[in-house]
C-alpha cells in the first residue's frame, strides 16, 4: 500500500510541474484523494458490499467534485489534474499512466446493462471538457483534445479533436507515419492539434477553415473566368461581361467576429 502511494505521488511530479513536495500532493490534490477513495469503494464493490461502496463513492464526489463509479476499473499511476466535474461510469476501464483533465466524461450512450462505457488503454491523455461516450476502445498513447466529443474507437497513438471527434494524427500498424504528409501533420499536432485546456488561438475554427477553402476555390474560378473572357474578346467573339454582385467586406468581418466569439466561448 505504501509503495502504491509513493508511485501515485511520483506520477504527479512527472506530469504536474506545479507540484512542489509530497506533503502538498497528499493534502492538496483532490484528484489523488478521488483515486484513493475509489480504490476503497472498488474493494467494497468487489466484496459485493454495493451500498457501502456507493456511499464511499458519493462521499468522494462531495469531497472532490470527481465522480468515479465503484465498478470502474482503474490502472496504476492514474492522474487526474484539477479534476472538478469528471464523471467515470460503471463499466469504464482505464489502463496504466492515463491522464484526465477537468470536466472529462467517460460515459455511456445506452441504458442497457453490460459494457456501455469506454476503455482507455495505457498512456491515454484526455483534455479538459472532453466527452468519450460508448463501449469502445481508445488505443494506447492516444490523445483526446479538449472539448472533443468521441463516440468511435480511436487507434493507438492517434490524436482526436473536434465535435464530433476527428482523427488528425494516425500511425500505421508498424508505428511509422503513413506518409510524409502525415509526418508534417504530426509535427503540427504537437504544436496546435492537442491542447489539454482549450483550443489554441492558432487552431482555426473548422467551419471557418472550410469556408476559407471554398472562397479560395471561388477566387481561382473567378480569375480563370476573367482570363477566358479576355481570350474570347481577343478572338473577336461578342462577349458580354455582366456585373457580379458586390461582396461587401463588412459581411465577412461580421462572420469572422462571430467565429472568434464562438471559439472564445468554447
Describe the structure.
The protein has 266 residues and is α/β, with parallel strands linked by helices. It folds into 2 domains: 2-193, UDP N-Acetylglucosamine Acyltransferase, domain 1, CATH 2.160.10; 206-265, no CATH class. It is built from 7 helices and 15 strands. The protein is elongated and about 90 Å long. Mean pLDDT is 78; it is low at 173-178.
Task: Using brief descriptors, characterize the structure shown.
alpha/beta, 266 residues, 5-stranded parallel sheet, 2 domains, single chain, UDP N-Acetylglucosamine Acyltransferase, domain 1
Task: Give a quick rundown of the structure.
With 266 residues, the protein is α/β, with parallel strands linked by helices. The chain folds into two domains: 2-193, UDP N-Acetylglucosamine Acyltransferase, domain 1, CATH 2.160.10; 206-265, no CATH class.
Give the full name of the CATH homologous superfamily of the largest domain.
Hexapeptide repeat proteins
Overall body shape: elongated
**Order of strands across the biggest sheet?**
3-6-9-12-14-15
- First CA to last CA: what distance? 41 Å
- Provide the β-strand percentage band: 5-15%
Q: Provide the CATH architecture of the largest domain.
A: 3 Solenoid
Q: Give the proportion of residues in helices.
A: 40-55%
State the oligomer. Answer: single chain
Per the CATH scheme, the topology name of the largest domain is UDP N-Acetylglucosamine Acyltransferase, domain 1
Please give the count of helices.
7
Question: Briefly, what CATH class of the largest domain?
Answer: Mainly Beta
Biggest sheet record: 6 strands, mixed
Amino acid at each position: 500500500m505504501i509503495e502504491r502511494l509513493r508511485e501515485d505521488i511520483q506520477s504527479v511530479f512527472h506530469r504536474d510541474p506545479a507540484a512542489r513536495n509530497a506533503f502538498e500532493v497528499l493534502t492538496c490534490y483532490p484528484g489523488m484523494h478521488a483515486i484513493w477513495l475509489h480504490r476503497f469503494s472498488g474493494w467494497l464493490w468487489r466484496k459485493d458490499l454495493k451500498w457501502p461502496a456507493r456511499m464511499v463513492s458519493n462521499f468522494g464526489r462531495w469531497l472532490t467534485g470527481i465522480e468515479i463509479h465503484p465498478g470502474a476499473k482503474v490502472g496504476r499511476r492514474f492522474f487526474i489534474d484539477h479534476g472538478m466535474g469528471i464523471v467515470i461510469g460503471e463499466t469504464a476501464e482505464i489502463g496504466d499512466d492515463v491522464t484526465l483533465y477537468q470536466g472529462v466524461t467517460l460515459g455511456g450512450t445506452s441504458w442497457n446493462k453490460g459494457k456501455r462505457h469506454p476503455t482507455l488503454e495505457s498512456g491515454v491523455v484526455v483534455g479538459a471538457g472532453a466527452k468519450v461516450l460508448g463501449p469502445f476502445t481508445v488505443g494506447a498513447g492516444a490523445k483526446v483534445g479538449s472539448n472533443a466529443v468521441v463516440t468511435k474507437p480511436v487507434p493507438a497513438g492517434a490524436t482526436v479533436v473536434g465535435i464530433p471527434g476527428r482523427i488528425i494524427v494516425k500511425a500505421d500498424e508498424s508505428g511509422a507515419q503513413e506518409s510524409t504528409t502525415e509526418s508534417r501533420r504530426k509535427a503540427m499536432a504537437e504544436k496546435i492539434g492537442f491542447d489539454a485546456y482549450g483550443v489554441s488561438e492558432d487552431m482555426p475554427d473548422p467551419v471557418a477553415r472550410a469556408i476559407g477553402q471554398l472562397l479560395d476555390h471561388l477566387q481561382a474560378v473567378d480569375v480563370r473566368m476573367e482570363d477566358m473572357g479576355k481570350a474570347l474578346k481577343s478572338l473577336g467573339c461578342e462577349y458580354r461581361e455582366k456585373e457580379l454582385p458586390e461582396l461587401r467586406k463588412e459581411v465577412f468581418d461580421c462572420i469572422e467576429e462571430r467565429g472568434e466569439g464562438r471559439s472564445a466561448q468554447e
